[in-house]
Amino acid sequence: TYAEEQEEASAQALGQERQRTIDALEEAARMKEKFFAAMTHELRTPLNGIIGLSDGLINGSFGDLPSRVKDRLGTIKLSGYRLCSLINDILDAASLNNSSLRLVDEDVPLPAVCEHVMHLTKAVLKKDVEFRFHMAEDVPTIRGDTGRIKQILHNLLGNAAKFTWAGHVGLDLSLDPSRANVLIAVSDSGVGIEEEQLGKIWGAFNQGSAG
């Protein structure tokens, strides 16, 4: 009947419109991923030059330099690494949205990783804050993605130090009671988070008062 034909045509048009919407969203996601990939590449290129030149100056490739100058160059180099880490965060955010983030399965020497990240955080911030690292004696090598673990530690330690004007930032490495899992705990003596804000910390773009 005419009514049935109209209903079928309407359903067909609706299906076509839905498919066009899906195609447009998928294309937008692809364009966004390409943009982030191109942007991070363009940002990494000059940063790698800064890091490489700083490293060459520190190692004496261009002649010997005073210790105080090498210290300043070391800070520039570490700051470059930190900025590279932030750029990686941007790219990862895009990858997570598109479900295309890849992880590496490898041996991770956690003590060395933790010490490296803590040293980097301390050198970059240059604040009157004591950094404490405590590790249990029997922490084993674990399997995981070294780069991602460094990235998480950078963010946790950086955030802890950012809101700690004086006092300490701590990093503890231990085993849980079952001895089946490694525990990493970051602590600080900073302003903390108000109780009513705790439920919001996993949301996007939320930040408590800095006191």
From TrEMBL:
Highest taxon listed in the record's lineage: Eukaryota
Naturally occurring in which organism (per UniProt): Cryptomonas curvata
Protein name: histidine kinase
Enzyme type, top EC level: transferase
UniProt-listed Pfam families: HATPase_c, HisKA
E.C. designation(s): 2.7.13.3
Catalyzed reactions per annotation: ATP + protein L-histidine = ADP + protein N-phospho-L-histidine
Record lineage: Eukaryota, Cryptophyceae, Cryptomonadales, Cryptomonadaceae, Cryptomonas
One MF term in the entry's GO annotations: histidine phosphotransfer kinase activity
InterPro entries membership: HATPase_C_sf, HATPase_dom, His_kinase_dom, HisK_dim/P_dom, HisK_dim/P_sf
Record GO cellular component, one term: plasma membrane
